[in-house]
């Protein structure tokens, strides 16, 4: 199946934005059901899980690249992944006791969380196969995941008052449902026999996907290191709560994801420029809106979190940088062909972008983690540790590390793929965002944040719609390309309505 990057990207973006709404509601449900300390404990356990699901990349890395090129080895992928899942499930159960004792977190949380490991090893294979073969199906499964998670969460947290356990069980059950749906859709591929030769290839080349994502393994050490140095999870709670709000920006990266299998399958890189423009068109106003509305959004989560408003503003800028960085990484890795060549040797892989890009991320994240550990130690040793102060330093370090990696990737893609940021278009998006920002600011300063939850949520919803309308109108007036895009969308919508009416008449 030939991947259409723009269509698949749009479907994924729509699905991700729908799931963003349900995901935000789930976050609200969790945050408002747990104390600051409990939410920090929940985030610590979730971060620890990453280290035991990390080896799933040994399979999913190649499953995605192979399926994008029309080579479907689902049975082989599932078999090896589930073997790894059982091993790391047992390892997590045996090794989580020290963390439970040091941070005084109930071991029952670790026991329940261990079942998520097995589910993730199943889910990641299915997601990789869907993304390579049919990204639109992946979009559909995302909606199922988020809706299921919200439904389970509402029942377990509100009706049964299960607290952290309810949050963990909700996520596990939703991920299991998503995995089983994808497995059902791809069941014909299970008829293809297991290829034992792939086991040997994947295990022999395991170093490549593990190294490629080693930077993310290091990145996720931040929660563990901060918690163990400070013996406190409050700064982690503030950071993660703010980070959850920036998902509205991070999710824009989803629009670019189908570009990866498209390029892997031999697609032309010329589509990248238009997709980059759309990414900037969406991420620029989202970033500015989040900066303006930092206080009411954090207050909506829980009044305790409003002290993290400056940190949220910094993380919003970091998220914008990461959207661009991820886009350039997709283009660079998508055009790499070393794994297609049958006679590629170790030195060829080491000279390829499959090695160099992860190395850039690794260096950036190592610097990030080193600075974070140093600041945490410094604040604790000088007895000046406060959750809010550390959270703000943490946000600045995040922005700095993202910026370093972005600049290097930007230089590579500009030199080798002749792709660059259209600063003229970006300036228009920024100018169109200014009237929106002013309107949101005037609305905010007259907003009574002591309102109850639903009245405050309704005000923020009105503010979001107002900002979107102002941005769209101003951009329509000053940008020819946006006017053309709007007209094309309107024409396609009219064609859709006409066909729908004709079908109704015929029936």
Describe the structure.
- The protein is mostly helical.
- Helices cover 81% and strands 0% of the residues.
- The protein has 3 domains: 1-204, no CATH class; 206-421, no CATH class; 426-507, no CATH class.
- It contains 24 helices and no strands.
- The chain is globular, with a radius of gyration of 23 Å.
- The two termini are 31 Å apart.
- Residues 1-9 have low confidence and may be disordered.
Overall average pLDDT? 84
Helix and strand composition category: mainly alpha
Estimated helix fraction: over 70%
H/I helix tally: 24
What shape does the CA trace take? globular
The largest β sheet comes out as: none
The count of β-strands is 0
Termini separation (Å)?
31 Å
The fraction of residues assigned to DSSP E strands is under 5%
From the alpha-carbon coordinates, what is the Rg to the nearest angstrom?
Answer: 23 Å
Any low-confidence stretches, pLDDT <50, length ≥5? 1-9
| Helix-strand pattern | HHHHHHHHHHHHHHHHHHHHHHHH
Structural domain tally: 3
């Amino acid at each position: 199946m030939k991947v259409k990057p723009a269509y698949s990207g749009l479907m994924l973006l729509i699905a991700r934005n729908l799931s963003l709404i349900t995901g935000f509601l789930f976050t609200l449900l969790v945050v408002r059901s747990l104390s600051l300390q409990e939410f920090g404990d929940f985030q610590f356990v979730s971060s620890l899980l990453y280290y035991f699901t990390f080896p799933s990349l040994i399979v999913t890395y190649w499953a995605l690249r192979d399926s994008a090129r029309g080579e479907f080895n689902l049975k082989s992928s599932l078999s090896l992944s589930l073997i790894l899942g059982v091993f790391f499930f047992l390892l997590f159960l045996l090794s989580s006791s020290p963390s439970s004792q040091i941070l005084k977190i109930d071991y029952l949380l670790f026991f329940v969380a261990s079942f998520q490991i097995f589910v993730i090893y199943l889910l990641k294979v299915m997601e990789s196969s869907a993304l390579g073969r049919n990204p639109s199906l992946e979009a559909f499964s995302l909606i199922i995941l988020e809706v299921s998670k919200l439904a389970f969460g509402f029942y377990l947290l509100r009706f049964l008052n299960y607290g952290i356990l309810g949050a963990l069980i909700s996520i596990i059950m939703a991920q299991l449902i998503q995995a089983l749906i994808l497995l059902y859709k791809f069941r014909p591929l299970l008829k293809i026999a297991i290829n034992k030769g792939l086991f040997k290839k994947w295990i022999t080349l395991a170093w490549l996907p593990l190294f490629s994502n080693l930077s993310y393994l290091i990145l996720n050490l931040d929660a563990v290191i901060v918690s163990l140095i400070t013996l406190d999870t409050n700064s982690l709670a503030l950071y993660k709560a703010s980070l959850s709000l920036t998902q509205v920006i991070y999710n824009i990266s989803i629009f670019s994801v189908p570009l990866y299998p498209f390029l892997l399958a031999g697609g032309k890189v010329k589509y990248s420029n238009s997709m980059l423009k759309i990414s900037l068109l969406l991420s620029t106003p989202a970033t500015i809106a989040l900066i303006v509305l930092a206080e009411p959004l954090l207050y909506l989560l829980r009044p305790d979190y409003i002290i993290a408003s400056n940190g949220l503003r910094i993380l919003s800028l970091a998220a914008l940088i990461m959207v661009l960085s991820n886009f350039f990484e997709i283009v660079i890795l998508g055009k790499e062909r070393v794994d297609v060549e049958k006679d590629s040797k170790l030195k060829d892989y080491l000279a390829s972008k499959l090695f160099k890009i992860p190395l850039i991320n690794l260096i950036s994240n190592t610097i990030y983690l080193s600075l974070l550990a140093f600041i945490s130690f410094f604040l604790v040793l000088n007895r000046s540790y406060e959750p809010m102060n550390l959270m703000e330093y943490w946000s600045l370090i995040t922005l700095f590390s993202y910026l370093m990696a972005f600049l290097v990737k930007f230089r590579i893609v500009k030199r080798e793929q002749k792709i660059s940021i259209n600063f003229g278009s970006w300036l228009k998006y920024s100018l169109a965002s200014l009237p929106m920002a002013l309107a949101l600011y005037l609305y905010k300063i007259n907003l009574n944040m002591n309102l109850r939850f639903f009245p405050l949520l309704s005000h923020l919803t009105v503010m979001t719609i107002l900002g979107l309308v102002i941005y769209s109108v101003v951009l329509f007036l000053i940008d020819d390309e946006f006017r053309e895009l709007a007209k094309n969308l309107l024409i396609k919508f009219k064609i859709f309505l006409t066909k729908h009416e004709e079908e109704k008449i015929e029936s």
